[in-house]
Amino acid sequence: MAEVRLRAYRPDDAAVVHAVVTEAFGDQGDTVAALAEDLRATHAKAELVAEVDQRVVGHVLLSRSWVDARQALVEVLVLSPLSVAPAHQGRGVGSELVGAAITAARELGAPAVFLEGSPDYYSRRGFEPATLRNFTRPSVRIPEPAFQVVVLDGHEEWMTGALVYCEPFWTHDCAGLRDPELSRIEQMFED
Ligand SMILES: CC(C)(COP(=O)(O)OP(=O)(O)OC[C@H]1O[C@@H](n2cnc3c(N)ncnc32)[C@H](O)[C@@H]1OP(=O)(O)O)[C@@H](O)C(=O)NCCC(=O)NCCS
To answer: How do residues 52-76 score in pLDDT, each as one tens digit?
Structure first.
C-alpha cells in the first residue's frame, strides 16, 4: 500500500482540498467545502492534508470555539471537517489525520477537542462521549452519542459547560443534523 504523508495545509492546496471535501461529503459537499473555507479565513488553528503519491487525498481542520464554563469562557478546538477522497477511504488515511490533529491540538495547548461524528469510528481514535464529562451540546440536533471529545493536558476540572460553536457552523447551517436525517440517526442510536 502506498505511503501516506501528512503535512500542513498550504494556500496552493485550496483547489484540491475543495475537491476532496466536496467529493467526500457527497450531497453536502458544497456546504461543507464552504464551511471549511470560511473556518480557514476566520477561526482555523491548524489544518493538515494527507498525500499519497504526492497527491492530496485527505484533509482535516481544527478551529477554535468555546466552552462556556461558570468561571470563564474557555477556548477549545473543534475537529471539522474531516475528509478522505472516496477512492482512498478505508485504508487508514482518516485515522492518521485524526491522530495528527490530536497531536497538533496538544502542541497548541488546547484543553479539549470536540467533534460530531460516528461514536464507533471516533471511540477507536481516542474520543469519548462529551456528555460523560458534563459538556453540553451546542445544539440538541446533535444526537448525544455523536457529541464527542478528547480532553487534553491543558484541561482543568472547572472547564466544563456548554460548547459554543464559532459563527461559521451557524452561517453554513452545519451544527447538528436536520430532519429527516436527524430522526433516522436518533432512531439508529435507540435500536
Ligand atoms: C469518515 C472518513 C474521514 C474516514 O476516513 P477513512 O480514511 O476511510 O478512515 P480509516 O481508513 O482510518 O478507517 C475506516 C473505517 O471505516 C471502515 N471502512 C472500511 N471500508 C470503508 C470505506 N470504503 N469507506 C469508509 N470506511 C470504511 C473501516 O473498517 C474502518 O473502521 P475501523 O478501523 O474503526 O474498524 C471518510 O470515510 C470520509 O471522508 N467520509 C465522508 C465524510 C465524513 O463523513 N467525514 C466525517 C464526518 S464526522
So the answer is: 999 999 999 999 999 999 999 999 9
Strand ranges, E, within the chain: 4-8, 44-52, 55-69, 73-84, 112-116, 128-129, 147-151, 161-164
Give the tens place of pLDDT for each residue, 128-159.
Answer: 999 999 999 999 999 999 999 999 999 999 99
Report the atom number in ligand 1 closest to the C-alpha of 116: 48
Cα(89) to centroid(ligand 1), Å: 6
Mutate which of 89, 113, 122, 174 to test ligand 1's pocket (most atoms within 8 Å of Cβ)? 89
Determine whether the shortest distance from the Cβ of 121 to ligand 1 is under 6 A: yes
Question: Would you say the CB of residue 94 lies under 6 angstroms from ligand 1?
Answer: yes
